[in-house]
Amino acid sequence: MILTQELYTLAARHEPYRELCARWMRRSRTLLEQHFDAATARQLDALIEGLALHRALDDTPPDRALTREAVARITTTA
């Protein structure tokens, strides 16, 4: 997790690392798009990144129930 955050910091400051992160995010979304439409894949990708960060740094990290509910809200049509 620390290396990921350091990479994001480098990406914010240096174009070559920004391009690396952009490719990484595109690859992740491409894999998710095998199962979901593009908009949903983008939302899930952001959820995964955010939950990983919260899990690593939050005093009370999200549990599996919260994760399941968040995924259901994104992937289930109203």
Automatic annotation (TrEMBL):
Parts of the chain that traverse the membrane: none
Extent of the signal sequence: none
Domain Tetracyclin repressor-like C-terminal group: 5-75
One Pfam family hit: TetR_C_31
InterPro entries per the UniProt record, alphabetical: Tet_transcr_reg_TetR-rel_C_sf (IPR036271), TetR_C_31 (IPR041583)
Name of the protein this chain belongs to: TetR family transcriptional regulator
Species of the source: Streptomyces griseoflavus Tu4000
